Amino acid sequence: MTKAGTTLVAADTPAPTARLPRRRGIELALIVVAVLLSVYGYCAVGIAKDGTVPPGAAGYGAGLGVLASVAHLAVRLRAPCADPVLLPIGVLLNGLGLVLIYRLDLETPGDRAAPAQLVWSTLGVALFIVVVLLLRDHRVLQRYSYVCVVAALVLLTLPIFFPAVNGARIWIRVAGFSIQPGEFAKVLLAVFFAAYLAANRNALAYTGRRVFGVERLQLPTGRVLGPLVAIWLLSVGVLVLERDLGTSLLFFGLFVVLLYVATGRTGWIALGLLLAAVGAVAVGQLEPHVHVRVEDWRQPFASIEAGEGPNQLSQSLFAFAAGGVLGTGLGLGDSILIGFAAKSDFILATAGEELGLAGLSAIFLLYGLLVERGYRAGLALRDPFGRLLAVGLASILALQVFVIAGGVTGLIPLTGMAMPFLAQGGSSVVTNWAIVALLIRLSHRSRSRLGIPEDPEDSRDSRNSRGPRDPKDPKDPENEESTV
Amino acid sequence: MTRHIRHAAFFCALLMIALLVNAARIQLFKARTYDDNIANRRTTIARYGQPRGDILVDGRPVTGSQDTGEHLRYERTYTNGPMYAPVTGFASQMYGTTLLEATEDGVLAGTDPLLSPFPVWSGAARDRHPGGDVATTLRGAAQKAAFEGLEGRKGAVAAVEPSTGRILALVSAPSYDPSALSGNGSSVPRSWSTLNRDRDKPMLNRAVRKTYPPGSTFKVVTAAAALDAGVIEDVDKPTRSPDPYTLPGTRTRLTNASEGCENAALRKAFEWSCNTVFAKLGVEVGAERMAATAQAFGFNRADLRIPYSVARSTFDREVDRAQLALSSIGQFNTRATPLQMAMVAAAVANGGQVRTPYLVERTTRAGGGTVSTAGSSPVRQAMRPSTAARMKELMVDVVREGTGTGAWIPGATVGGKTGTAQHGLGNSGTPYAWFVSWAQGDHDAEPKVAVAVVVEDADPDRGEISGGGDAAPIARSVMEAVLKSPAPRAP
């Protein structure tokens, strides 16, 4: 079955020799591959554009290699049992992002974003190392959950006092740097949600009324509805005040996923979807900014037919189409036609055009693997907070990738968001390194707790997960709680 | 909780599958539709992403490509742009292409499947190859002579090689520099609107796209028709022609610019360009036969391409006798492009055969391999060879002692015909001065060049004009340039 299952078997056997292999060597090998792939991409861009290997190739490779090595050493030192795939995926996506931004910089000589992105990546890796080294037990974070939510709210409200940039109030400017506080707030909110739900999930799960006598559709009572409504209002507030549809979608989706995982109540999902639908329709009608996005999604080529030329979304679709199966090759596409935000929100279009469907699928699969590893850590962990945190962080990545990738490929209405690791944007890359660092810590914890008796929930769950649900089922959270 | 984590994971997997399926939809199934969207500039960028092939005159390029380093990377450049503009046309990033730049675009831009070693596959794959070159039939020296001859005036010159139909010179004045339209900067729309507003219409290719009343130069056609029809059997026998001549069925009296036209023989009438004689001859030949001869010379054909299209020269066959009389001296509805009149002179020089004129000798790949060659152009008999021989005599006389002495070239046999075409309301416009001619060097086996020159703003003093004064010297310098310049190497 799964690796978690293997773990269980190993845990059931008393022999301490059945330790999981640490697999740090595999991690190192994968990091080498990731760095080499990035350097290769960097060289491919230079060769395609100028016919020569770009002069900075060695420096770029060395820089990325040193960053990855230091991060690897930190993992070796403090999280030796961590999942060996997480860090290499982060390195590869970040390296590829730098290549794509460098490639687009060549089209905009007056606006070079790659050097700044490299600095932010360094900061991100530094934060990664700090988290891996200092956060010895993730459960410490549970104590600071209310500090986290206050910090998150402060970060979210800060940009309201700064001028809007391109229609969205999500930036603050400090000493020439643009910072998107909403990016940091994501992690803080995930910590808060995980802690809040870990503490209150019984109350949320076992109170409420049945609808039509069907237990599955049990709805929560008004008293516990409060937090959900508060978060919903927060999302809408973020949306209306900052005109940031993507972030509000992300927050709300994250909360609903965690709520479901924590309580298992489909009533929450139904209510969440209902509230989301009401919010979406209302905002779509009332906010012209959002309304335009929805219209663009329904008719991407309307502006062409109206004789106003292609809009960003149609340019993005053109770029993906031009890529075909194998792509034009790095440096040989024309995705710069997208214009504004080609390096940030629309970076995926460059990947789609120059690496083709093959490269795009590979990138999606890398994200998928990252998310899967996060969920795996969540499955293997024992404490509810750790499980919810792992699921929450992985879901942030999944939702974010879906919202922005779906937006630029015309699957859903376009909302401005950064493609994790790939897109230009310092706050985003730093946040994503923090997420990977937390996942490393969580996976280390999940894989290193050997010899400790397994949480009975997991073993039973794997046996009768499809069985009829009994209120007295021992796998219910109440019982689980008592075993901790 | 584990089960719900699995559910959430399953949900995330669904999201990823949706992304993958959608990516495949865009990049596989919709790709061709999106690629072909008119607003997608990738085709344009690819088009200008490589240097455009060149148009060659005497084996040397008269065009070039400049790497601007901009998004639309290569811009067209022209050497002697105004001189060659009536041949090359322009290749603009904003306004498309015209003339050879348009008709040969596939070769020049590299999209022609024949540029590929595997044309069938290439056509299916829509590849782009390095731009090929287009070698023209022009003679640089003749073009230069014609361009300099028309400098500061309005008019056109067309010169062809009678035995093949090769166009040796094609000039229109005033001209313009097509490189002003090449790029996409703000100066390009300015140039475009300035050129379009210009009352002299510098972008009009007068040599092939404008028709003029041919005036007396049309008498070559009328004389050929009369000889072919047997209306005239002896060019030296006096005709029964009154002076002035009253147009049949009217009271309009047609006069002559010169004396001695009454009952003049064809040779004298041709030499002195007697309107009365030729008007009456045309009527005697009849509309049917006049039209048949004119059409054999190329009139009334709308499908002539050299390879770009040439305006239709007209001879009206639905005419009464008075109109026929005027038509036969190149007035009324008779209109001709300068190229058409060069073909008339060429037919005389080439034993009565009209070769379809053409501009492109061959096209080559970037490496030099031939893509296509002109081959021999279609031929049509415009008059009997014996008639052509007599017409040559008549035209030689015009240059030797008639109105066309300005075209005389030492060391060569030159035949010509002047013309003065009235136009405008009540013939009030400045008359057009015409000259059509051919020349054969003393050491040549056959005539090497036939030329037609039209000058729109000829000297307004009607007593002095004649094509002889304004147009003949230009024709002479063009013919001299052809006779003196070495024939191009066989391709």
Automatic annotation (TrEMBL), chain A:
<feature type="transmembrane region" description="Helical">
    <location>
        <begin position="28"/>
        <end position="47"/>
    </location>
</feature>
<feature type="transmembrane region" description="Helical">
    <location>
        <begin position="53"/>
        <end position="73"/>
    </location>
</feature>
<dbReference type="Pfam" id="PF01098">
    <property type="entry name" value="FTSW_RODA_SPOVE"/>
</dbReference>
<feature type="transmembrane region" description="Helical">
    <location>
        <begin position="85"/>
        <end position="104"/>
    </location>
</feature>
<dbReference type="GO" id="GO:0005886">
    <property type="term" value="C:plasma membrane"/>
</dbReference>
<feature type="transmembrane region" description="Helical">
    <location>
        <begin position="144"/>
        <end position="164"/>
    </location>
</feature>
<keyword id="KW-1133">Transmembrane helix</keyword>
<feature type="transmembrane region" description="Helical">
    <location>
        <begin position="224"/>
        <end position="241"/>
    </location>
</feature>
<feature type="transmembrane region" description="Helical">
    <location>
        <begin position="346"/>
        <end position="367"/>
    </location>
</feature>
<feature type="transmembrane region" description="Helical">
    <location>
        <begin position="253"/>
        <end position="283"/>
    </location>
</feature>
<dbReference type="InterPro" id="IPR001182">
    <property type="entry name" value="FtsW/RodA"/>
</dbReference>
<feature type="compositionally biased region" description="Basic and acidic residues">
    <location>
        <begin position="459"/>
        <end position="477"/>
    </location>
</feature>
<feature type="transmembrane region" description="Helical">
    <location>
        <begin position="184"/>
        <end position="203"/>
    </location>
</feature>
<dbReference type="GO" id="GO:0008360">
    <property type="term" value="P:regulation of cell shape"/>
</dbReference>
<feature type="region of interest" description="Disordered">
    <location>
        <begin position="449"/>
        <end position="484"/>
    </location>
</feature>
<dbReference type="GO" id="GO:0015648">
    <property type="term" value="F:lipid-linked peptidoglycan transporter activity"/>
</dbReference>
<keyword id="KW-0132">Cell division</keyword>
<keyword id="KW-0133">Cell shape</keyword>
<protein>
    <submittedName>
        <fullName>Cell division membrane protein</fullName>
    </submittedName>
</protein>
<keyword id="KW-0472">Membrane</keyword>
<keyword id="KW-0131">Cell cycle</keyword>
<feature type="transmembrane region" description="Helical">
    <location>
        <begin position="388"/>
        <end position="412"/>
    </location>
</feature>
Automatic annotation (TrEMBL), chain B:
<dbReference type="InterPro" id="IPR012338">
    <property type="entry name" value="Beta-lactam/transpept-like"/>
</dbReference>
<dbReference type="Pfam" id="PF00905">
    <property type="entry name" value="Transpeptidase"/>
</dbReference>
<feature type="domain" description="Penicillin binding protein A dimerisation">
    <location>
        <begin position="52"/>
        <end position="124"/>
    </location>
</feature>
<dbReference type="GO" id="GO:0005886">
    <property type="term" value="C:plasma membrane"/>
</dbReference>
<dbReference type="InterPro" id="IPR001460">
    <property type="entry name" value="PCN-bd_Tpept"/>
</dbReference>
<dbReference type="InterPro" id="IPR054120">
    <property type="entry name" value="PBPA_dimer"/>
</dbReference>
<protein>
    <submittedName>
        <fullName>Secreted penicillin-binding protein</fullName>
    </submittedName>
</protein>
<keyword id="KW-0732">Signal</keyword>
<feature type="signal peptide">
    <location>
        <begin position="1"/>
        <end position="23"/>
    </location>
</feature>
<dbReference type="InterPro" id="IPR050515">
    <property type="entry name" value="Beta-lactam/transpept"/>
</dbReference>
<dbReference type="GO" id="GO:0071555">
    <property type="term" value="P:cell wall organization"/>
</dbReference>
<dbReference type="GO" id="GO:0008658">
    <property type="term" value="F:penicillin binding"/>
</dbReference>
<feature type="domain" description="Penicillin-binding protein transpeptidase">
    <location>
        <begin position="155"/>
        <end position="480"/>
    </location>
</feature>
<dbReference type="GO" id="GO:0071972">
    <property type="term" value="F:peptidoglycan L,D-transpeptidase activity"/>
</dbReference>
<dbReference type="Pfam" id="PF21922">
    <property type="entry name" value="PBP_dimer_2"/>
</dbReference>
